Amino acid sequence: MNRFCLFLFFLLLSSSVAAAGQLQDLVTPLLIAHPDRSGAYVLDKGEEALLARAWLVDHAVQSIDVQYFIWSDDNIGTLATESLLRAAERGVQVRVIVDDLLVQAPDDFLLALAAHPAIEIRIYNPQHKTGVSTGERLWNIFSNFRAANQRMHDKTFIVDRQVAITGGRNMADEYYDYDHEYNFRDRDVLLLGPVAESMTASFETFWNSSLAVPIEQLLDPKKSPDAQQRLEIYAELHAYAQNPENFAPAVKLALENLPQKFQGLIDGLVWDEVRFISDEPGKNSGADGLGGGGRSTALLVDALLQARESVTIQSPYLVLPDGGLELFAGLIARGVKVRISTNSLLSTDNLQAFSGYSKQRDELLEAGIEVFEFQPQPQIQERFLERYPALKDNAPVFAIHAKTLVIDGRTLFIGTFNLDPRSANLNTEVGVIIDNPQLGQVVEQQIERDMAPGNSWNSATDNPDRFAPWGKRFKLGFWKLMPLKDIL
């Protein structure tokens, strides 16, 4: 399939937007029918999560507020940018906060977008890239190591303050199953109702924080394009997304039923109390150096302490912070079954983080925690990649990126929190907690399927490291020698 065929997911035809009416026409009757409740739909497939975002952007009327840790300049990132520009051009107010560490866009491009009267862009904690020289970056790392490592890991997408998405996905090909070499098994949740207001309040806190700096204050104004150059950049973005030569017939056919597909998501909403949890900008005061915890950490620990029967976790990285092993051992001692789905040495995208897990693995298993390591070519890949028939002869690596917790089969957390010291103490994190057995059981079954033979190896019996090539095992041995735990 042509690598540009996914463009159609962001081209929902302006005529269909007009025909569909405003977003509130769809949402308002639902909120009236479910007073004081929020709707939730788990976005388990990458393409489904992409379509939901695309549909919402093209139906926004008043505002779009987004926060991401990564916003790539690959196909997905470029198309997402173009869709936000189109929304701004019809009068929607667009605000974007991106963490500084992995910003990927030329300065003139960012300045051109920020110059649009309906678009504002802020960079969180700019100590590494945006407007920062190599010398300044090194000084930031050596002069305040904690501040340089404190990142905004939040991922929120809020439309008209009524509909929102949060979860593990950033804005890049690999989070929506469109990378040709490496894709993530991830999970988001589509939300309607009061929870979107809570997410908006958190966004406002970050937007007004001194850590979120307007892009214009960071970049050299000499690099700012003039009015004509800005129009050329906008035109180039639109042309990139609208070139019909890039559209595969199969994707065109899929788009014809897109309104019905989104209606299917709406029909599948589960209505209940949904609690949004988030950290404050900066995570904590910093008085404890690389420690200190945060609100999200405390709330998730409190939720875990309520477990009576089972705890099922999915996390791409598994490095228990201080007190974590004791917490899980205490749960197991009172009869709680603890299972964790994570990446194997073959599937991981972060060898440093895996080294931390590797050093703890024996202790985890001795404590009675059941650990399942995801295979790079799992059988489940065929289920999640709708394009799998065209890729099966050269299928990309499929790896865990979902950050999910299910307690007693009913209390569900979906968000950005990895099971590691960085999420516990350094990075700001967000997510939702929903006490609903219907959603809890569905997601737990999804994780159990990922844990099953053919999709994962059992860490206690399969010795998964042996399947990795010698070179990768050698690199793992090197990283295990490094004292990295607090920043993993």
Count of distinct strands: 19
Q: Look at the structure and give the mean pLDDT.
A: 89
Largest sheet: number of strands, sense, barrel closure: 9 strands, mixed
Cα shape: globular
CATH superfamily (homologous) name of the largest domain: Endonuclease Chain A
Main sheet strand line-up: 9-4-3-2-5-6-8-1-10
Q: How many distinct domains?
A: 2
Q: Specify the CATH class of the largest domain.
A: Alpha Beta
Termini separation comes to 37 Å
Using the coordinates shown, work out and report the CATH topology of the largest domain: Endonuclease, Chain A
Number of helices: 20
Low-confidence stretches: 1-20, 246-255
Features:
single chain; 488 residues; Endonuclease, Chain A; 2 domains; 9-stranded mixed sheet; 8-stranded mixed sheet; 19 strands; 20% strand; globular
Written description of the protein model:
This protein has 488 residues and is α+β, with helices and mostly antiparallel strands. The chain folds into two domains: 5-270, Endonuclease, Chain A; 275-487, Endonuclease Chain A (Endonuclease, Chain A), CATH 3.30.870.10. Helices cover 41% and strands 20% of the residues. It is built from 20 helices and 19 strands. It has helices at 14-20, 23-33, 46-59, 75-89, 107-114, 134-143, 145-149, 194-207, 215-218, 227-242, 249-256, 258-267, 295-305, 324-333, 351-366, 381-384, 388-391, 421-426, 437-451, 470-480; strands spanning 38-43, 63-71, 93-103, 119-124, 156-159, 163-167, 182-185, 188-192, 212-214, 270-272, 274-278, 310-314, 337-343, 370-374, 397-400, 404-407, 411-415, 430-435, 456-458. The strands form three sheets. Strands 9-4-3-2-5-6-8-1-10 form a nine-stranded mixed β-sheet, sandwiched between helices. An eight-stranded mixed β-sheet has the order 11-18-17-16-12-13-14-19, with helices on both faces. A two-stranded parallel ribbon has the order 7-15.
